[in-house]
Amino acid sequence: QVQLVESGGGLVQAGGSLILSCAASGLTFSRYRMGWFRQAPGKEREFVSAITWSSGMTYYADSVKGRFTVSRDNAKNTLYLQMNSLNAEDTAVYYCALDPVLRGEYIYWGQGTQVTVSH
Question: Is the distance from CB of 79 to CB of 98 less than 8 angstroms?
Fold first, then answer.
């Protein structure tokens, strides 16, 4: 059974940094991608970043390019999102998700972690 557990959210001042983690368990897939999504109040969920686990290829939304960095630790089965230069528009619940067969469909989701950026 796949489980994704996010951590690391919190309150940070504008211009500050946070690191989100997503611990994955129950992974039995040979090729998969893990991603970060976020949903702000009153808005639809949006893609933030992703990484293909085997190759390390990364993907970013234009809104976070140059500020966020996605990475993974194979030994710990953990996904990370380093977020720098945070601004109020980054305030959202952040979710990690798993595309288990590289079809662009994220099937498994974590419970989310709140990130709040204050002015």
Answer: no
Per-residue pLDDT of the chain (119 residues; tens, 9 = 90+): 999 999 999 999 999 999 999 999 999 888 899 999 999 999 999 999 999 999 999 999 999 999 999 999 989 999 999 999 999 999 999 999 999 998 889 999 999 999 999 98
Give the burial string for 20-59 (b: 16+ CB within 10 Å, else e). bbbbbeebeeeebbbbbbbeeeeeeeebbbbbbbeeeeee
The CA distance from 98 to 21, in Å, is 14
Q: Cα(81)–Cα(70) distance, rounded to whole angstroms? A: 5
Rounded-to-integer distance, Cα 101 and Cα 33, Å = 8
AA identity, residue 7: S
Question: pLDDT tens across 102-119, in order?
Answer: 888 999 999 999 999 998
